[in-house]
Design brief:
Elements lengths: L1 H19 L13 E3 L4 E2 L7 E2 L1 E4 L13 E5 L17 H12 L4 E5 L6 H5 L12 H19 L9 E6 L1 H12 L6 E5 L8 H9 L6 E7 L4 H17 L6 E6 L6 H15 L4
């Protein structure tokens, strides 16, 4: 089953990159408060490809002087716009606009595009003998030390750890998990959805070394129809975290028996992840 999930990821790499090149004629579904930052970022020692960065601002951003929590997310092509998505969007903007209307709670979302064929390198901190990868540490260092600095300098943000999040799915879940444990003083809210823990056994030693955290909230989500190993791997990491010393009240694991490894599943669970991480009722 792990190989089936891996096959899905490989197909995603090649198809999503090609798909993104042919989306000009599709109608955009992004909300008015979503845009692409004009500045593009090349990450030294990762690749020579410029990374586009999308940003979602709360509906009242331009009519207030408030500062907002910031959540960094991966695979930006799939977050806001059906015209750029691979297999449907997460509808992050619609979900957060509704949340704002209901609760008055606003967030800034920073979405970093993957670069297609380089996605494995970007989202994996360790190498896999079959699939390669292993440059995720460079990618996460860029987010923590370069991109965050740029966002905090150019937007009204709440900069402290307790206001700053990381959310991703699949390999994006893996790099979010890694980022939360590697940079616990920077990121305080982590959403690791359908996480590809299978990619490297080194995640276990990494967790044993870094998992004793008291001030990081972590939401582990997995679907019951993603494959047997996916939910087993997630349960295994939950137990390991708790054994290592991760604060139990800051850890939530949810297994949705009907969940599949796709954007529709992540879209349906997104608001629950946000409201739990940021304690919104």
């Amino acid at each position: 089953m792990k190989h089936l999930i891996a096959f899905f990821i490989i197909i995603f790499l090649s198809t999503s990159f090609a798909f993104s090149q042919n989306t000009v004629e599709k109608k955009s579904t992004a909300s008015e408060n979503v845009s692409v930052i004009q500045k593009e970022f090349v990450i030294p020692n990762l690749n020579e490809i410029s990374h586009k960065v999308w940003i979602y601002l709360p509906p009242n951003y331009h009519n207030s002087t408030k500062k907002y929590p910031v959540i960094y997310m991966h695979d930006a092509q799939n977050l806001f716009d059906a015209a750029t998505s691979y297999a449907g969007e997460w509808e992050v903007d619609e979900a957060l606009n509704k949340l704002f209307k209901k609760t008055g709670k606003g967030f800034i979302i920073v979405g970093i595009e993957n670069t297609g064929e380089e996605r494995i390198n970007e989202y994996t901190p360790w190498k896999n003998k079959k699939y390669g990868g292993g440059k995720g540490n460079i990618y996460m260092d860029f987010i923590a030390n370069t991109l965050k600095s740029y966002i905090d300098s150019n937007y009204r943000t709440k900069t402290k750890q307790k206001h700053t999040g990381l959310i991703g799915s699949s390999l994006g879940g893996l790099i979010s998990y890694y980022g939360g444990l590697q940079y616990p003083n920077t990121f305080g809210k982590i959403g690791a959805l359908s996480t590809s823990f299978w990619f490297s056994e080194k995640v276990e030693d990494f967790t044993k070394e870094k998992g004793n955290l008291k001030n990081v909230k972590l939401f582990l989500l997995v679907g019951g129809k993603e494959g047997d190993d996916t939910d087993k791997d997630t349960k295994k990491m939950e137990k390991l975290l708790l054994k290592t010393g991760f604060k139990p009240l800051n850890l939530k694991t949810k297994i949705n028996p009907e969940g599949k490894h796709n954007e529709a599943f992540w879209r349906s669970e997104f608001l629950e992840v946000i409201t739990w991480l940021y304690h919104i009722k």
